[in-house]
Amino acid sequence: MSDLSQTITGFDVWHLAVPVVSARDHGIGRVEGSCEIVVLRLTSESGDQGFGEASPWSVFTGTPEATYAALDRYLRPLVVGQKVGDRAAIMAKAQRAVAHCTEAKAALESALLDLAGHIAGLPVWAFLGGKCRDTIPLSCSIANPDFDADIALMERLRADGVGLIKLKTGFKDHAFDVMRLERIAQDFPEFGVRVDYNQGLEIEEAIPRVLDVAQFQPDFIEQPVRFHHFDMMAQLRGMTDVPLLADESVFGPEDMVRAAREGICDGVSIKIMKSGGLARGQSVARIAAANGLMAYGGDMFEAGLAHLAGTHMIAATPEITLGCEFYQASYFLTEDILETPFQVENGQVVVPDSPGLGARPDLDKMKRFSVRTSS
Ligand SMILES: [Mg+2]
C-alpha cells in the first residue's frame, strides 16, 4: 500500500537520556551528564514507519516528562486511526488539545512527515514547499565553562571548515565574556561570531553590558534579557547598530506578530521545538521576512533526528538566511542516536534527498539510552 490515505496504526514513545561530552552553560541554565529527549515512532497499515524527536529543556521550553505525557496520553488518541496524509488536520487538533508542549507537537509533525515521505518515496522537504538550498552553514555554540576546552573545540571547528560560532554569554561575570571575545578576535579572526545571552542579564545591567559587547561587532546579539521584557529588548535594539535577535521571546507565529509590532528585534531564532512543528516554524519565518526581519535556524539540546527535521524545514524556507546551529550530534553528544551520521561537510549541513527525514534512529542505541518507553 503506497498511498497516504492509509491509517496510522502504531504509536510508540521513548524517553531517552543521551550522554554528552561536557557541561554547557547557557545564560539561565546548565546541561551536563546527558540531554533528555523523547522519540515518537508512528506505524501505518502498510508497516511503514516514521520517527520524530522532541528535545525539551526545562528552563526554556518544558520537561521531558511533560513531553512524554503529552504524546503518550493526550496526543495518541488524536493520531491513531487517522489518515497519514491528513497532517494539517491532525496538527490543528493537536494544537487545541494540549497547551504549550511545543516539543511534543514538533515530534508529532516530524514523525507524520517522515512516515509520509517513506510511503511516497519523497524527502520531507518536498512536503514543505520544495527545496531552496542543498546545504546550510553550520554555527557551533561556545558554551563550555572551561574556556580552554572551548579553545580546543574552536581549533577542531576551524580544521573542519566550520565558519560560524556563537558565544554563550551572561552565565558568569562580564569580564569572562569580554576576555573570551578578545581571545576569539585575536586567535580566531576567521570565524563569524554571534553572541547569545539566553536571557542571562538583569534589567539593570543589560544596557552597559550589551553596548560593551557590541563594540566587538558580532553578527548579532541574541536575547540578552528575560523573554517577557519586550520593552527592554526594544530599548536595546534602538541603542546599537549590531542586530538584536529574539529567541526565548518568540516561540510561535503569534509571538512573532507581537515582536514585529513592538519592534523588539532585527531577527529571530526559529526552532521547531518552540514553534510546535515545521509548518509553524515556516510561518514564523514568513512573518519575520514580511516585516523586514532576519531569521536563523536555531535548535535545542537535540540529537540527530531533530536536527534532520530542522534541516528539512530550513531547506524549504528561503526566508531563513542566517544558517543553523545543528551542532550537537557532531560536537556535543557522546554518541548520536541515528543509524548513519548526521551529515556535515566542510562546515555545511547537507540537506538529505532520500525518502523521509533521511536517516533512522538506531533501535539498539534507543534501548541503551532508554529511561522509559511505551513500546
Ligand atoms: Mg538562543
UniProtKB/TrEMBL annotation:
- Isomerase in keyword set: yes
Where's the Mandelate racemase/muconate lactonizing enzyme C-terminal domain? 147-243
Q: One biological process GO term for this chain?
A: peptide metabolic process
Work out whether the entry's keyword set contains Protein biosynthesis.
Answer: no
Q: Which UniProt keywords apply?
A: Isomerase, Metal-binding
Q: Which GO terms describe its molecular function?
A: magnesium ion binding; muconate cycloisomerase activity; racemase and epimerase activity
EC top class, in one word?
Answer: isomerase
Q: What is its EC number?
A: 5.5.1.1
Please give the superkingdom of this protein's source: Bacteria
Recorded family membership = Belongs to the mandelate racemase/muconate lactonizing enzyme family.
Recorded protein name is Muconate cycloisomerase 1
Lineage, uppermost ranks: Bacteria, Pseudomonadati, Pseudomonadota, Alphaproteobacteria, Rhodobacterales
